Amino acid sequence: MSTFQTVRGMRDLLPEEAEVINYVITKARQTATLYGFREVITPIVEPYELLSAKSGEEIRQRMFTFKDLGDRTVALRPEFTASIARLATTAMKNEPKPLRVFSVGSVYRYDEPQKGRYREFWQSNFELMGSAKPEADAEVVLLTNSVMKNVGLQDYAIKLGHVGVLKGIMTQHSVEDKMQNAVLQRMDKKEYEAALALISSDECRNVLQGLIELKYDSVFDAVKKMKTHLQGYEKALNAVENLSAILKLVTESGCEIETVDPAFARGLEYYTGMIFEVHVPEMNIALGGGGRYDKLIEVFGGEPTPAVGVAHGLDRIALAMQSQKTALKTEEKKKVVVVPIREEQKGEALKIAQMLRDAGVSAKFEVMGRKMAKAMEDADKRKEADYAVIVGERELKEGKVVVKDLSKRTQTEVKIEELAQKIKS
Q1: Ordered structural domains, the chain, with CATH
Q2: CB 3.0 to 4.6 Å from 132: which of 95, 170, 306, 324, for a disulfide?
């Protein structure tokens, strides 16, 4: 009989891998709390129309789409923002602004599987809705910095840009929206030649080419040179001013911005302003990214609502941690295995194991029916317990158990009522 494999691009997370993903989720949740973001849980399956409205051609082509039993076209979410925008126009439309919302879970894209790119992957997602101010943009950059710092990553770098720069230039040269999106899709992939080939205006091409080739000494120098390069492009210059204000706030807050990319683009169609990504030198894919999207909530029938958000790729962060050998800073808790010497002590031994769990001590019970020596040998070999609690007839009569320290190879008798405290200390 053949054994079943996972569907291509999906994978099982074994205990050690699940531990790292859950560690990153915990740090993302802690960061959400520190910044005042409240968690919401949205469905994995959404109407196709919702998810495809402004996601961009590339993501539309990579969605897991199917008909449900009611013959409705639905899809697995490829990201969170559309679902949150839906919430903002329905159940949360009367919430006071700004609205700070956090989500975490699996998302699905039919990409070609490779290291750090799966068809089912995990994201933490932060959305700040209701403010058009640069400080809102700065906040999502700062919280991304906090997530990276809190998981223990080193040498990560944040790259900043503004989609309004590129859109402002193209709009001034009457490049229609659909063509703008196609150009930005290619620029996102660094396919600059292919991107510029789509534009008929020589002048427009030359201005964009100049941005791609712009050389600068520092992030603020980049902003200065962009202003000089874009004289006569009012919308693009306004975007540079906005980028400059965000950059100033972020750097004054003590967060370093490694790069300002004048020709930076991201694949999603709904971005309208500042965009950013975070990278580590070991990987050529972003660990997270986001930006401003001021028109999306209107698309879904809501009031005009400025918004900015970011998604972090938890699998990629876990990979970066693995490559940097980042230790998980978790609270060390003692673990025990509880072993009855004879059949007659099973009930009491189970009661003791439960007492330990109630006191917050991790306790495994010998469920294989092995003799004490064999059970102890197994616990020692697996390195899954610090102590063995041996429940015997004589000790029980005295209200005691034997506690064996598996690393020091020592053992002592301990009163049952003092057992949890002794193990914890």
Answers
A1: 15-323 (3.30.930.10), 335-424 (3.40.50.800)
A2: 306
